[in-house]
């Protein structure tokens, strides 16, 4: 399985597929290369022989790398014969699964269709009613909690899917429910409907921990130490390792239990069994295709389901983080009449009809006495909640240079250990030592050179950083990401709720009459009664829950500004039992009881149908009726560009774009309103069957609603702080471009003197293969910048020469076109891009991945579920939301401001620099001790066990713990911390320090032999190493370990000074003082315990202290003035880059080209108003007249005439019962408008009884 190709610029998700290889989920986010394997008995038996010969080491290797075991014991084969499969994702992670073959009873010989393509009409194919769903010999396997079924048509395994995509609307309405037998069979295929988070038994976790490479090496070291009678340190390491394993197991079990308790839930669900029979079953028994009833008082959804009757008010805070009630409507039924088109269902496009697993259904509404029913789409790990849990269990792997290079360094240390191993064998053979001693001494060098405590030492900085973050109310679920935060040099921010306040302030209303704007109305009490005021009072999704008006904050502000009141007729207990209109009226109008049509005539407005807001459509709408009126009225609210495109051109003011620009340029949030009087022949049942596309056209433009979206007070200082640290800031938002530009300038992302170039792309014309891409100066500059020299496969952009600093601003529509037709241009756009507006959630993730593709380390900060994709894709994702969906982000801030961003980066930089220091310290400590041992081996001596214990336990273990406690520097530095260990800085640092450490050891080793009182070492069989050479080397090396900790404990610019870490400072003083004491004035008893020879000369003792002092000065001076010298480091870096031809980051190369190429890009002499730019862009979105009118009639009138003709051909209608589904109410028309009016009177009356339900029944019976 070779490495895949490089991802194309701008491509999200997996890289392109390589011809000749087989893939699971091709082209999707979870695309994986798959290879089949079949057992080879010869290779299998050979593997067992090698297990024995290698004393189990080969089996241990296969335990760590199971895919190697499959490749070693199996032979590659076609997938249809495979017994095991190896999958490799685009992160180069390998997964092994066993293919199972089974199937109960006899079934159909026809291959199953699992809707893997998601295209076409698949009605009746997936769930055959008269045949067994499970075929004999069905082959399948599971990986990452997902089941894959063998499909002989595609000759590949296909992901088992539910009913989420590719089915026609009518298919869901045809489902009547499964029998018990059919449901059991489908449950066998899909499994139980449960997101099972397995809590691993303690014994299993214990073996997994003990068998990890780190603990295996520690076990090897401890065995060696016990054999060498180094019991004290071995016991200490055993104790520490045991505590570490216990803590790890406890933390793992705690996390698994918490996740299980949070995720796992079940309840009793009412399920249809056909023939309108419903039974109560456990939610764990649900399967895709089941018909379930939603309780009228709500529930927690245990599956993904699509509504087929009734409406639901849902709290989706689990997904979005916003506790805002959302109305979910049922999907239209194409079988009720010609007014509804047969449409293929899509989870993404039709999410407004879907109840997602884990969301809270607060209450339900339905028509008459019918049940609120839904069709189960997905269960278990296939649901949206299941996908969230899978993202937690199988996170994106962290690819970090420091971690990779640390392995390279360990290999280098291991290579040096091999050299020392050979050196030791040669010397000890020459000395005539026994084979046992030679093996122990040689292997001991391995444990010295590769310190077993290295992983624990590296983790200490992360532990302290995580504790400090918790104090700042920032929580991290992936501690390994803390070090990565230190590399971040670009941060993307969402706008609304992240940079700006969640709430809005009402600025005013700009009415429009006769294709002209009136003066802005700032005092809403002066607002004249009319369609605009009625639109503000009705076009929302507000509802009353527990006596409180709840809904979207924007809707609340708009409605409260009207000074109207909202009432939902009936008692709260029964209010949601039927589909009744919501009533709004001016507050000054008394809510009296009505008994006749004449008394009902007034200002009451009933909201009889709602089309919820859709981010893809950028609008919402409602159908209302005023009491006493003869027709219904549609009100639409949405983005100004979208509403204008849907409005009749003669109702849109000529200066629409210039007025809109005047507000958005100053950061105001602008919403447009429009209306449409519907034909009088439209009756209530027909209203319930309409699709929004049939009425949301040919509107009358009413005006603009202007709101102020203020910056959070913390935003501007944080942006300036990041800018001063040379960290790029980018805004990526779904809001209007000009509003985003205004906020970008206000918060300091774009300096007042910088130029903004707006990028607009248009679909290519019929005779061209490339889109038309234009560049304009935004703001006060009206100079057009255009792309010239547009040829096949290349693009040349030119800007005037006086443009020193500029920023690209790109809309989501332009991003999509450029990504589709000219993706090579995206790298230039992201290097200079600062504002990305009207971006969809997918496009946000694409932007992050393109930034990563050109070499940036990207952080993302957002507050909603629409940012989850980008949060997961970024190197560092920081969520300001506490929604369950935000757990996909490594960091979550309880304080919803962007102050957490510099805090996380500071801690990341501090932790990263600490990790660098600790790694260099542990490597230098190993090499220093390695040098000491090699020097003493020259005479057949060694350090004694108490000396090893003094170094390893008293000095090293205490110093690397307190070393890591230093806090981050107060300010963010302009320079970035080092990322790579394999770079001139760290290599020069370790090499220079090793020279400074080894030279004094050699000098004192040679110098002591010249002293008149010197007694040479005599080799002996008792391993008695007490001698002057041993004492000299041990004492000078003890000082060196302390010196190295001071040298590598760097302060500014990423950490505070060493003096701020009082515990570390006290530790240094203690270690240095104790070492000086045993050098100058050791007691005989202590020297005996230490097995240390004492020196009779005080002058020589003082000389050792002096050598240590000089070594300290040289070591610190070398690190501060040579290694940390910026100019020297740059020269070394340039020399290494020249010799090794190292590639620089792509973004740096692009910036260099832009700087050195004055011809990129030239300036056009055209002066075009910014409003005209958007007007041209919006003109491409206008609905063509042929889609609005058919043969001179409106599309809606044409459908109504066609439907009336069909009804006249059908003759008398069949009688209906009182319980008529609003989606199946084709026969429920009214004989005249008076009957319709009387029914509306009943439905809008304020009586607390349910007489309106009886009226519905009487009307239906009469029809």
Structural overview:
There is one protein chain. With 1263 residues, this protein is α+β, with helices and mostly antiparallel strands. It contains 42 helices and 44 strands. It has a 12-stranded mixed beta sheet with strand order 20-42-41-40-21-33-39-38-34-35-36-37, with helices on both faces. Helix 6 (202-210) packs across helix 8 (231-263), helix 7 crosses helix 12 (435-449) and helix 15 packs across helix 16 (553-562). The chain is elongated. Mean pLDDT is 79; it is low at 2-10, 104-132, 571-578, 592-601, 780-803 and 1210-1263. Its main location: membrane. Belongs to the cation transport ATPase (P-type) (TC 3.A.3) family. Type V subfamily.
Q: Label the structural class.
A: alpha+beta
Please give the count of helices: 42
Span between termini: 69 Å
Question: Regions with pLDDT < 50 over 5+ consecutive residues?
Answer: 2-10, 104-132, 571-578, 592-601, 780-803, 1210-1263
Strand tally: 44
Cα shape: elongated
Strand content: 15-25%
Give the integer mean of the pLDDT values: 79
Transmembrane segments: 45-65, 195-226, 232-250, 406-426, 438-465, 922-941, 947-966, 1061-1080, 1100-1122
Family: Belongs to the cation transport ATPase (P-type) (TC 3.A.3) family. Type V subfamily.
Keywords: ATP-binding, Endosome, Magnesium, Membrane, Metal-binding, Nucleotide-binding, Phosphoprotein, Translocase, Transmembrane, Transmembrane helix
Domain P-type ATPase A: 268-392
């Amino acid at each position: 399985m070779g490495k895949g190709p490089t991802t194309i610029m701008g491509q999200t998700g997996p890289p392109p597929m390589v011809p000749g290889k087989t893939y699971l989920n091709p082209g999707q986010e979870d695309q994986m290369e798959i290879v089949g394997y079949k057992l080879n008995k010869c290779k299998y038996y050979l593997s067992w022989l090698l297990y024995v010969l290698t004393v189990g080491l080969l089996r241990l290797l296969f335990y760590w790398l199971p895919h190697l075991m499959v490749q070693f014991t199996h032979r590659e084969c076609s997938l249809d014969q495979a017994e095991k499969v190896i999958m490799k994702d685009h992160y180069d992670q390998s997964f092994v699964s066993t293919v199972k073959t089974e199937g109960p009873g006899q079934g159909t010989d026809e291959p199953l269709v699992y809707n893997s393509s998601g295209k076409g009409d698949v009605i009746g194919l997936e769930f055959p009613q008269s045949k067994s769903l499970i075929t004999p010999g069905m082959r399948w396997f599971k990986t990452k909690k997902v089941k894959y079924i063998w499909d002989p048509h595609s000759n590949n395994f296909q992901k088992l899917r539910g009913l989420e995509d590719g089915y026609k609307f009518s298919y869901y309405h045809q489902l009547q429910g499964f029998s018990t037998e059919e449901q059991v069979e489908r449950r066998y295929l899909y499994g139980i409907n449960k997101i099972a988070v397995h809590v691993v038994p303690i014994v299993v976790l214990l073996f997994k921990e003990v068998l990890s490479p780190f603990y295996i090496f520690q076990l090897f070291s401890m065995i060696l130490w016990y054999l060498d009678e180094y019991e004290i340190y071995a016991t200490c390491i055993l104790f520490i390792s045991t505590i570490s394993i216990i803590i790890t197991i406890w933390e793992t079990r705690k996390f698994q239990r918490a996740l299980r308790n949070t995720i796992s839930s079940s309840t009793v669900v009412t399920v249809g069994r056909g023939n309108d029979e419903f039974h109560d079953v456990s939610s764990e028994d649900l399967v895709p295709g089941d018909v379930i009833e939603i309780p009228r008082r709500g529930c927690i959804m245990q599956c993904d389901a699509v509504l087929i009757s009734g409406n639901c008010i849902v709290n989706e805070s689990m997904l979005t983080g916003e506790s805002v009630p959302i109305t979910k409507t049922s999907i239209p039924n194409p079988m009720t009449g010609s007014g509804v088109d047969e449409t293929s269902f899509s989870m993404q496009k039709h999410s407004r009809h879907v109840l997602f697993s884990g969301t809270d259904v607060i209450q339900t509404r339905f028509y008459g006495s019918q049940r609120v029913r839904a069709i189960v789409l997905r269960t278990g790990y296939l649901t949206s909640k299941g996908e969230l849990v899978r993202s937690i269990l199988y996170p994106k792997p962290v690819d970090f240079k420091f971690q990779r290079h640390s392995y390279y360094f360990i290999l280098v240390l291991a290579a040096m250990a091999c050299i020392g191993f050979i050196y030791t064998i040669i010397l000890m053979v020459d000395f005539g030592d026994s084979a046992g001693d030679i093996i122990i001494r040689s292997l001991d060098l391995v444990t010295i050179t590769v310190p077993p405590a290295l992983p624990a030492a590296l983790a200490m900085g992360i532990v302290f950083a995580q504790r400090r973050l918790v104090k700042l109310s920032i929580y991290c679920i992936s501690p390994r990401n803390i070090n990565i935060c230190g590399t971040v040099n670009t941060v993307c921010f969402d706008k609304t709720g992240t940079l700006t306040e969640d709430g809005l302030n009402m600025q005013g209303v700009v009415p429009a009459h006769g294709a002209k704007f009136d003066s802005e109305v700032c005092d809403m009490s002066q607002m004249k009664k009319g369609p605009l005021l009625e639109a503000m009072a009705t076009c929302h999704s507000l509802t009353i829950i527990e006596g409180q008006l709840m809904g979207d904050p924007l809707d609340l502000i708009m409605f409260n500004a009207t000074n109207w009141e909202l009432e939902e007729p009936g008692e709260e207990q029964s209010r949601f039992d039927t589909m009744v209109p919501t009533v709004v009226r001016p507050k000054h109008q008394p809510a009296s009881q009505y008994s006749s049509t004449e008394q009902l005539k007034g200002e009451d407005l009933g909201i009889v149908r709602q089309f919820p807001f859709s981010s893809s459509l950028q609008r919402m709408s409602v159908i209302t009726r005023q009491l006493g009126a003869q027709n219904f009225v549609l009100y639409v609210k949405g983005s100004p560009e979208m509403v204008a495109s849907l409005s009749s051109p003669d109702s849109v003011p000529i200066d629409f774009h210039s007025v809109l620009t005047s507000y958005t340029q100053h950061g105001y949030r602008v919403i447009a309103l429009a209306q449409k009087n519907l034909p009088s022949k439209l009756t209530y049942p027909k209203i319930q069957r309409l699709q929004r596309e049939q009425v949301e056209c040919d509107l009358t433009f009413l005006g603009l609603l202007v709101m102020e979206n203020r910056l959070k007070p913390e935003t501007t200082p944080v942006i300036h702080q990041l800018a001063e640290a040379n960290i790029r800031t980018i805004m990526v938002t779904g809001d209007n471009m000009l509003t985003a530009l205004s906020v970008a300038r206000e918060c300091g992302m774009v300096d007042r003197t910088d130029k903004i170039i707006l990028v607009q792309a248009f679909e290519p014309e019929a005779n061209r293969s490339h889109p038309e891409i234009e560049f304009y100066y935004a703001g006060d500059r009206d100079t057009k910048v255009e792309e010239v020299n547009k040829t096949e496969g290349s693009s040349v952009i030119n800007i005037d020469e006086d443009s020193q600093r500029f920023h690209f601003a790109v809309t989501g529509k332009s991003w999509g076109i450029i990504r589709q037709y000219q993706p090579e241009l995206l790298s230039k756009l992201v290097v200079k891009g600062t504002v990305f507006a009207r971006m969809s959630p997918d496009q946000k993730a694409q932007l992050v991945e393109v930034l990563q593709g050109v070499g940036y380390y990207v952080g993302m900060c957002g507050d909603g579920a629409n940012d989850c994709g980008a949060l997961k894709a970024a190197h560092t994702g920081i969520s300001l939301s506490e929604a369950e969906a935000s757990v996909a982000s490594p960091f979550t801030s309880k304080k919803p401001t962007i102050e957490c961003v510099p805090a996380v980066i500071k801690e990341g930089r501090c932790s990263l620099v600490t990790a660098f220091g600790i790694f260099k310290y542990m490597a230098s400590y190993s090499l220093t001790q390695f040098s000491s041992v090699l020097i003493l081996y020259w005479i057949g001596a060694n350090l004694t066990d108490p000396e090893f214990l003094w170094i390893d336990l008293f000095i090293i273990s205490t110093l690397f713990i307190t070393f890591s406690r230093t806090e981050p520097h107060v300010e963010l530095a302009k320079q970035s911390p080092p990322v790579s260990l394999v770079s001139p800085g760290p290599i020069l640092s370790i090499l220079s320090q090793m020279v400074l450490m080894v030279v004094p050891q050699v000098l004192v080793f040679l110098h002591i032999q010249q002293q008149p009182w010197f007694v040479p070492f005599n080799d002996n069989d008792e391993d008695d190493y007490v001698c002057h050479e041993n004492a000299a080397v041990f004492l000078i090396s003890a000082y060196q370990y302390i010196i190295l900790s001071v040298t590598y404990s760097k302060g500014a610019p990423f950490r505070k000074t060493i003096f701020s870490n009082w515990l570390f400072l006290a530790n240094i003083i203690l270690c240095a003082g104790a070492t000086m004491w045993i050098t100058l004035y050791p007691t005989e008893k202590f020297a005996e315990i230490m097995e240390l020879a004492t020196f009779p000369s005080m002058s020589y003792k003082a000389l050792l202290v002096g050598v240590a002092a000089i070594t300290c000065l040289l070591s610190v001076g070398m690190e501060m003035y040579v290694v940390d010298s910026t100019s020297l480091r740059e020269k070394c870096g340039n020399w290494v880059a020249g010799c090794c031809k190292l590639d620089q980051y792509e973004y740096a190369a692009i910036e260099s080209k832009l700087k050195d190429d004055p011809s990129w890009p030239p300036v056009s002499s055209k002066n075009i108003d910014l409003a005209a730019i958007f007007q041209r862009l919006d003109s491409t979105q206008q609905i063509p007249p042929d889609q609005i009118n058919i043969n001179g009639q409106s599309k809606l009138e044409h459908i109504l005439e066609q439907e009336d003709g069909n009804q006249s051909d059908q003759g008398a209608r069949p009688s209906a019962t009182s319980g008529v589904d609003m989606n199946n109410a084709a026969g429920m028309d009214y004989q005249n408008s008076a009957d319709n009016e009387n029914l509306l009177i009943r439905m809008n009356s304020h009586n607390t009884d349910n007489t309106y339900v009886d009226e519905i029944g009487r009307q239906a019976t009469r029809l």
